[in-house]
Amino acid sequence: MRIRSLLIVVGMALATALAGCSTDSVTGVSFASYGARTDAGYRVPAIPITKVASQYRRQTVNYQTSEKPGTIVVDTGTKHLYFVLGGGKAVRYGIGVGRQGFEWKGVARVGAKREWPVWTPPPAMIRRQPELAKWRGGMPGGPSNALGARALYLFNKSGDTGYRLHGTPEWWSIGKAMSSGCIRMMNQDVIDLYERAGVGAKVVVK
């Protein structure tokens, strides 16, 4: 009986250890949430999340703001995006932002949402990168598409701003300033945000 009891204790300890290994001790988020998945027929590759700095991994944090729940606040300085939950809490995501000369700040709203969106490079981008001319009519959605798995389109009083909150297959760009002005997120994170944020949601970029 003693041996059996010992085996049970050891087994429980091992199970607890394994469970702990599957959860980020810093953020409390399951590593599995950044694993590979199939979405709308497309394969979303796993992200080696331990290679992403902990401050850029999705987590619920204390966040004091006068903005209402459901608002998206983008802090380009710290490279964080907050989805306001209320009660002094928010879901925080790591983001990539516009490189020097391509920054944008202001207040907008989510005018539309798309899953696996088509990406059409603007004329100014094609002039800078002529090799993109082949996508003048739009690059079909898919794992290699620049907009990733989801896109939230930002509108203001004048209409479509041309800026997006979108996914990216380039997870290593999170925490850096290297986009053409849009806010990029890891695909697994933008899928999470997409499910939370509604069309019409206020977006504050500062």
Automatic annotation (TrEMBL):
GO terms for molecular function: acyltransferase activity. Its EC number is 2.3.2.-. SUPFAM superfamilies: L,D-transpeptidase catalytic domain-like. Pathway: Cell wall biogenesis; peptidoglycan biosynthesis. Keywords: Acyltransferase, Cell shape, Cell wall biogenesis/degradation, Glycosyltransferase, Hydrolase, Peptidoglycan synthesis, Signal, Transferase. Residues 1-19 form the signal peptide. Residues 70-206 form the L,D-TPase catalytic domain. InterPro entries: LD-transpeptidase, LD_TPept_cat_dom, Transpep_catalytic_dom. CDD domains: YkuD_like. The active site is at H166 (proton donor/acceptor), C182 (nucleophile). It comes from the Bacteria. Gene3D superfamilies: L,D-transpeptidase catalytic domain-like. The keyword Transferase applies. Belongs to the YkuD family. This is L,D-transpeptidase. The lineage of its organism: Bacteria, Pseudomonadati, Pseudomonadota, Alphaproteobacteria, Hyphomicrobiales.
